[in-house]
What we know:
Layout: H1 2-11, E1 25-29, H2 33-45, E2 49-53, H3 56-65, E3 72-76, H4 84-94, E4 99-103, H5 108-116, E5 121-124, H6 129-133, H7 136-147, H8 162-166, H9 194-204, H10 222-233, H11 240-247, H12 254-282, E6 322-325, H13 352-358, E7 384-386, E8 389-391, E9 403-409, E10 415-416, E11 419-421, E12 429-435, E13 451-457, H14 469-472, E14 495-500, E15 511-516, E16 539-540, E17 554-558, E18 562-566, E19 571-574, E20 576-579, E21 606-608, H15 629-634, E22 637-639, E23 645-648, H16 649-653, H17 662-672, H18 690-696
Parallel strand pairs: 1-2, 1-3, 3-4, 4-5, 6-12
Antiparallel strand pairs: 7-8, 9-13, 9-15, 10-19, 11-12, 13-14, 14-21, 15-16, 17-18, 19-20, 22-23
The structure holds a DNA duplex.
Amino acid sequence: MTVEVGRANLVGENEDMDQFPIGMRILAVDDDPICLKVLENLLRKCQYHVTTTNQAVQALKMLRENKNRFDLVISDVNMPDMDGFKLLELVGLEMDLPVIMLSAHSNTKLVKKGVIHGACDYLLKPVRIEELKNIWQHVLRRKKPSAKNQNKRTNGNNTSQSVEGAKGFPPAISTDNEKPGKRQKDQDDDEEGGEEDSTYENDDSSTQKKPRVNWYDGDENLHRKFVAAVNFLGYEKAVPKKILDLMNVEGLTRENVASHLQKYRQYLKKLCSEEAQQCNMMGAFGGKQTSFRPMASLNGFSMTGIGRLSNATFSPYPSREIVGQLNSTSGLSLHGIASSGMFQSHKWSSSLNTLGKSHPAFLLANEPPHTFNGISTSSDHIQLHRDKCTLSFKESNSINDASSFTVSTSFPDARMAVGSSSNYDFGSSHLLMLRGQKQQIQGGGEFGGQSSLKVTLDNPEPLANGTGVSNILGHGESNKNWPGSIQLPKFSSNVSVTGIYPPAGMPATYLTISSAQPDNNNFPIGFPSTSVDSSSQLDLRGDTQCYEELIGSVVEAMNGRSKQQWDAAKQDYYGNHSSIVRDSLVSGNSVVDPLNQIANQNNAICLENIGSSSTNQLNDGAPTFIHDGAEISAMDTWMNYDGKILMDQTKLQSGFANSSFNSLDELVNALSKQDQDQSIQINDEFGFDAQSLGSSCI
DNA sequence: GTTGCAATAT
DNA sequence: CATATTGCAA
């Protein structure tokens, strides 16, 4: 039989495998003594070495006592003391032995369940000896990859799946036969014969070829992990090794990641330039906001494992830039630069040179960053001029200082949101996205539609890398719903976003974003900033309404055990201004659609992530992400790394349904009454401190 | 030792 | 052809 030939060839060199599968050690488990006896006899006829037990618990005990005592486990599914699936799972977790499930029921669901839980085979009772004769193949298959790595896997770890690990399978789950839809090149459907021979030849020699990494295959989608890792680290800081560490995917190499990163960057570059073109095409007039939503692509997690990168779903923008998106009706077409162009204060990005080259955002108009038409980034501010529109950024304070910046606008219906991710290198890695949106303005409101938003970063201190960071990104846990734009900086910072009233007399279309010390006057004062070196401002003038929206989010890992997302703040301003306070110090994160907040009126908004105080564990990261409203709306749920649903958009839209916001609600309400000075003690288990929050508010 | 880029392989 | 892998210089 070819099987025998193949087997002989394959195991021929392995001394102890000469006799294989004769004497293969099998643990048979079945609560029914009769069935067990029958099974035992059949197995013995196959010349296996059989050990039996009628208790799953006992079986587990035996297995644990000596993990190398058995080569394979055959277990009944239905057992009184322990579900066969449970046993299966435990075995898979603890010893990575092939497990064959036995059941009298051919229920597809059961079979599926068994396979999903890692069963390498699922046999129906009564079992025929013909079936048992072949079960050794499961042992062989599993041992095969380890043969050459025998030394490495003596620990009993489940490293035999190194190859499979590259596919993103969690080690705990046997990967032998599942995922029918998945095509893995290293996996021949026929388990033996010539295929094995050729494989063997390759394995044996140094010419063994690496299995190709399937970044997009499979439910867990390595690319998602990749994106998450990149976002976690921040675009510039995302280097292959760090990404690899974060991803923590077995079998994946740094080279794999480097390659993928390369491709990813190229993609972003391309995407951005394309978008720039589109933006240009769109022009200031008639461009339909919804047809081009660069930020929509921030949701990298909507990408499904097709192996194709979709513009709509990839996550192209490094979040740590300041991005000004002036689009649409605001008519902010800057000297031919896309009206939705992205701009960055060079100080916020430590290296424009690099960015200009590597960051698509700066490739707009195919010009070096500092030579953008009308945009100057050579100093600490960027100015964009087009007609009445001016955008300028200036970076302010030193990196080590707490910083704040204020965003203000007089656009009647501007929506504003500010978030922060702390990136030490950037001094402040505020994420800022300014986006013009088409929206009806209903009048200027009592303040003439002016608004401002202050963002304060109180804790730019770098955080030690969380030891648990590696757990954050998945390990097979469901994270497919992560927003792609989540960023996980290495340290957190306090962020406060406060809606404030703009100074009277500001131009009707005026937006300022300034950086200043917390103690400074937080108010944007005209533009451009008169202080060249230490204040930053962004002035935006347009004759039409402009919305700014920036959402910051913080995702945090607490000792690697959990992730927290701090969210984003948005402010809808128009006439009255409403700001959204979000804090997901607990499990939550929240995103509030500004559109739904319009009703909330005159509230000054304070948003602060206080958790980063040294006393709590939020220091591991303070990711930020930006979404535009539509994007956020598109996300149904966000999940934390434990697979818990952190936020349900619908709930959020209907109000801060998330319980974690209850206190915040109160806080916001209180704050909205301009009672910041009062201490509102709302402490949660995470040390959320309303008082400090209040103090951060203007 | 890493990284990023370019050449090469699939 | 797109993408993964490999090679190599910085």
